[in-house]
Amino acid sequence: MGKLSDDFAELMIQNILIQPFLRNTGYGDVFGEGILYPCIIEHKIKPITKPDGSLTVTTSQIHLDPGAIVGPRDKVTFEGISPKIISCGPDYDIEDPEDIYAIVIYT
Questions:
Q1: 84 phi/psi in degrees, rounded to 5
Q2: What is the pLDDT of residues 11-50, one digit of tens each?
Q3: Could you say which of 8, 56, 93, 102 is the most buried, measured as most Cβ atoms within 10 Å of its Cβ?
Q4: pTM: predicted TM-score of the whole model, two decimal places
Q5: Which SS3 state, helix, strand or coil, does residue 76 take?
Q6: Secondary-structure percent of the chain, ordered helix, strand, coil, rounded to 5
Q7: Rounded distance, CA 43 to CA 22, Å?
Q8: Cα four-point dihedral sign 104, 10, 43, 24
């Protein structure tokens, strides 16, 4: 598990609600109780590669503490919306590439 830079922690003034995916009933997804995480939300249009290898475009990138737990089927809510997660994963420290700097959610 990585360490969170003090500078980065000071910038996390926004919040995101993450509800873990529990199951699909055949009629829709069921999510667990949400956890509120401090974060940094960026709104940039940028191309990314999805986990299946296909290319797509992301419009929001949410940067979380490296200890945050989120999966691609979870439900995220921020700024009054709940967009679909395109991809999520670690962002590594430039100075120490083996160290996780943040978890990033792409929507």
A1: -70, 140
A2: 788 999 999 999 999 999 999 999 999 999 999 999 998 8
A3: 102
A4: 0.85
A5: strand
A6: 5, 50, 45
A7: 28
A8: positive
